[in-house]
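Hi there, hope your week has been kind to you so far. Thanks so much in advance, here it is.
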Amino acid sequence: MYGQFVAGKTYRLRISNVGLQNSLNFRIQNHKMKLVEVEGTHTLQTTYSSLDVHVGQSYSVLFTADQPGQDYYIVVSSRFTNPVLTTTGTLHYSNSAGSVSGPPPGGPTIQIDWSLNQARSIRTNLTASGPRPNPQGSYHYGMINTTRTIILANSAGQVNGKQRYGINSVSYVQPDTPMKLADFFKISGVFKENSISDRPTGGGLYLDTSVLTVDYRSFVEIVFQNDEDIMQSWHLDGYQFFVVGMDGGQWTKSSKAQYNLRDGVARSTIQVYPKSWSAIYVPLDNVGMWNLRTEFWARQYLGQQFYLRVFTTSTSLRDEYPIPKNALLCGRASGRRTRPL
C-alpha cells in the first residue's frame, strides 16, 4: 500500500479483514486512529494507536496527517499466531523529505486481555445520525426480554477416520438440494427440523445436515462458547445483532450481570477469544433459512456451520416474498413450479 497524503488533512480509512483464518492488528507509525464506524454502526469516537480486526470484520477510522513531512510505515500483523506474520505499506506525505527508516513499529502479539478490553470499548454512539431526544429512537435492545437462549460450542474431532469440525457435536454435511428450496417446497429427506441441539451435548462429533428452527419475531440470546485454544469468528447471514458481552472461561447465567444492555455495537460478525465466550442478542425479524458459520474457512468447509430456520406459518407477502418464478431450481426441486412474484 502506498498513498500520498497532504499534511494537516484528515482522512478516512476503511479497514477490512477478508482473510481465511487469522485476526490482524493494524497500525500507522506515529499516527493515532479515531474509530467512527463498525459494519454500518456509528461508534463512540475512541482513539487507538492500533486496532485488532478479526476475520470478517470491518472498521472505519479517521487519521490526521499531523506528523513531520516524511514517509511512515503502515503495518499489519497477525494476532495470536506463532510466528507473528507482518506486512507493511507506506504512508507518503506530499511534502515528504525522506523515506521510512528503522524497523516497523511493533504491536501486540498474544495478549488476549489487551484485545478483549479493546473489543469491549467499541460501543454505539447513541447521539450520532442527527438530533433526537430519545437515544436509539424507540428501540432499546436491553429492555426487551429474550425468549430463548441458544448456546453454541465449537469442537474438532475425527469422523469415519477423517478430520471434521462441528457445533454442538454436529458436523454439517451439504444436502443435494438448497435448503431454502427444500423448505419452500416442503421436500422431505433433505433436512430435519432441530437436527442440532440448542445446547452443547458433550458427545462426540457426528455428521448431519444441521438445522435449528426458531420463531419469527422472537428475540433470542446466542452464546458462543469456545473451549479451544484457537481464535474464532462467527457470522450470521441475514442479520445484524447486538454484541452484549464477552469474557474468558465458561459462560453461566450469572455472566449476564456484566452484559452491556445500553450501547453494545450492532454488527454481523463476532469474535470469540480462546477459552472464552461471546454473547449476542438477535431480533429474528427476517424469515428464511440463514447460515450461521465460522469465518475460519477450513473449519467451515469441514462442517463448522448450520442453518438457523426462522419460521412462521404466515404466507403473507408482508413477512416473506415468494421465490421468483424465473428462479433456477435444482436438486430435488427440479421441475417444481414457484408461485408468481
In short: The chain has three helices and 23 strands. The chain has a mean pLDDT of 93. The two ends are 46 Å apart (CA to CA).
